[in-house]
C-alpha cells in the first residue's frame, strides 16, 4: 500500500491545482449597485429650471455698468452661501467692485473688493470658527443644484474655502454629451444642452440662478480682456463694475 501513497498524493495535488486555476480565472464579480442610477435622482427638486421665485427663495438685482442681472437665491439648499452673499449685499460690500476675471464661453467672476482675485472674506471670519476656520466657510453641495448656464456659484481655492467671491456660469454651448446619465437627473442633462460647465459640479457651491439678464452676462463675457500677472487672458481691459445690489425679495 505504501508504494501507492506518492501516486495518490500527486493526484490530490493535481486536483487541487486544477480547482485553484479554475477559480483564479473566473471573472471578478461586479456589483451593480454603484453602476445603477438611483431612481430618486429624477425625483429631486430642481429649482434652477424655473424662473419663478418661490417663497423659500430670495431675489436680487445685480446692477452693473453693462446692465442689470436678476438672480434668485436658494436659501433652502445653501443657507450659508446665501446669508453670506445677502449680508455683504446689504452692507454694500460689493458696491463698485469689478468682475476681475472674465472668460468667454466659461464664466464671469467677481466679489473681490481688491479686484485681484486674491481678496475677499466671509461674514463669519474671526467670528464663528465652526463655520469659517479662517480659510473660508464650508461647501454646500446639493443634488438639486448644478453648474448649468446661468448658475451663480461660490468661487473657492479648494474645499471649504468660500469667502465673498462668486461666478456666473456663461458657457452657451451644448455640453450634454459628456454627462453621465447615471449620476445626473434627466432634466439637468437636458438643461446642459443649453450650456453650462458640468466639470464644476460637486466642487463649487451653486447658490443662485440668473432668471433675467443673461444677455448682460454674455455681454460681459465678450468684453475685451488682457493678460493677468499669471498669464491668464481674463482681466477686462476696461473695468466692468458691480455698481450695487438691490434686494427685491427675501425668503420666508
Structure description:
With 252 residues, the protein is an alpha+beta fold. It has one domain (39-249): Cyclophilin-like (Cyclophilin, Beta Barrel), CATH 2.40.100.10. Helix content is 18%, strand content 21%. The protein contains four helices and eleven strands, in the order αββαβββββαβαβββ. Strands 3-11-1-2-8-6-7-5-4 form a nine-stranded antiparallel β-sheet. A two-stranded antiparallel ribbon has the order 9-10. The longest helix is centred in the N-terminal third of the chain and has 20 residues, at 5-24. The chain crosses the membrane at residues 7-24. GO terms for molecular function: peptidyl-prolyl cis-trans isomerase activity. It catalyses: [protein]-peptidylproline (omega=180) = [protein]-peptidylproline (omega=0). It comes from Leuconostoc litchii.
Sequence-ordered SSE layout with sheet pairings:
Blueprint: H1 5-24, E1 58-64, E2 67-73, H2 79-90, E3 97-98, E4 101-103, E5 107-110, E6 151-154, E7 166-169, H3 186-191, E8 206-212, H4 214-221, E9 225-227, E10 233-236, E11 241-249
Antiparallel strand pairs: 1-2, 1-11, 2-8, 3-11, 4-5, 5-7, 6-7, 6-8, 9-10
